[in-house]
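Z., the sequence and structure:
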Amino acid sequence: MSIYDFKVNDYTGKEVLLSEYKGKVLLIVNTATKCGFTPQYDALEDLYKKYKDQGFEILDFPCNQFFKQAPGSSEEIHHACVLRFMIEFPQFEKIDVNGKNEHPLYAFLKENCPVNKGKKIKWNFTKFLVDREGNIVDRFEPATKPEQFEEDIKKLL
């Protein structure tokens, strides 16, 4: 199984095959709009604008598991992010990243990442970096700001 075998729903509920992102460098992040790390949206959008034309994508999965910091529907969250942070990268349906209802994508990410292999997601804004071949190459914890691993992204591009 590879990351490209997964199906997810975008913020409107439309099914998206991750195989659509084959050949791109991916940053997969669970987010929340009412979190202390929410200002990272600005840095994420900056990275996206800087590298999207070189084959970089950010896949944003809102998550309400941590103190209910992603309230509202997936569409409400998306519209808030577009208005407040002017995000242009793809945003998906709100999901669980841990526990009995965790999304299979996140079970796969956690189990196949060489960093913190199998460890639960601690909080929102945990970020997984995936190379162009679909290999999970790194995991960055919430306090790690996107600009701190920009060089890692550049190396994969």
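The chain has a mean pLDDT of 97. Residues 48 and 57 are 7 Å apart (CA to CA).

Let me know what you think.
H.
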